[in-house]
Each structure stands twice: as structure tokens, then as C-alpha cells.
Amino acid sequence: MSDSDDEILVSMFPEPPRPPSPEPTISIYNRNKTFIKSPEDWEEIKIRLVGDHPLWGHYLWNAARSFATYLDEHRDLYENRNVLELGAAGALPSLVAGKNNARLVVSTDYPDAALIKNIEQNIKTNLTLEEQDRTVAQGYTWGRPVDQLLEISSSRTGQGRYDPIILSDLVFNHPQ
To answer: How many structural domains comprise the chain?
Structure first.
């Protein structure tokens, strides 16, 4: 969205001042011990979650935890491949793919500064420098052209595609 789009929306739907957002929280994902083969292997991922967000980015849902375990168990699905996660929030599945040798991981969520900065922080906190070089946080609005996402893949790996695409919590919404 452009600044003028934001201004139009604010003028159409004015909101009262909001109280300050709560502080971010940390959720710990503990890796299944059967996947740890050596003392150098990773054991946990600390997921920083925004304090509050209307798009539910302040929760680490069970679907993300379950899918992260599934990815850890089935590395053949993404190892040395380009991975795209849509609606990543805290980006746990993306981080597992990054730690387990995906060629490229692009972790997306709605292009809100708080959400994208949070994903970037989780990448920096949980991944080695080498893993960070293969992992990107990117804003993306569903239904918009995917050219920018394909360009990231193409410029980084020479392949303008993703295989697999992760969608762990996309249809969950309390009021629906």
C-alpha cells in the first residue's frame, strides 16, 4: 500500500487513539531430541512475537509448531531447495528450513513494519551468519503480483521458483 492509500483508509475509517502495544513475547520451540545427532546440532529456537497485532502475528500457533517438527523430520522436502513461507508471523517453519539447509528461505507476512522487523529479528537471533545469508524476510500482500518474490529467488539462486511453499496458519481467524 502507498502512503496515499493509507491516508484514504484512515479518512474513511477513523479510529480512536490506541493504547501502546504490549511488549513482545518469546516462545520457545524445542526440537525433538531424536533429530539431534551431535552436540553442535541446534536444540531450540526462540521465537520473538510482536506484543499485539490485528493479523494474529502475536501468537505462535500449534500449527506452526507441528509443521516445524514435520519439516525437521522430512528434510528431503526442502533441503537444497528454495522455500517460501506465506503468513509467517514468527517464522518458525522458515527458521527450521533455514537451519536444515534449504538453499533459500523467503519468509513473508503482510507488509507491516512491526511484522517484518520481527521476522528479521528472529532470523538474526536464531540463525548462523551462513544461514542468515540464505534467509530473507519480505513483506507480501496476498493476491498481489508475485514478481518481487520470484525475483528474489531468481537473483539469489538462478531459479525463479519455490518448492515447497509453506502455509501453516493461513486460514485461522477467531471471528470467522
So the answer is: 1
Please report whether residue 103 resides in a domain.
yes
Distance CA 59, CA 64 (A): 10
What are the angstrom distances between the C-alpha of 135 and each of 17, 90, 127, 158?
Answer: 36, 14, 9, 15
Mean local confidence (pLDDT), 74-81: 97
Express each pLDDT in 31-46 by its tens digit.
999 999 898 899 999 9
Q: What's the one-letter identity of residue 164?
A: P
Q: What is the CATH number of the domain that holds 161?
A: 3.40.50.150
**Full residue range of the structural domain in which residue 98 is found:** 18-167
Tell if the pTM clears 0.70, that is, is over it: yes
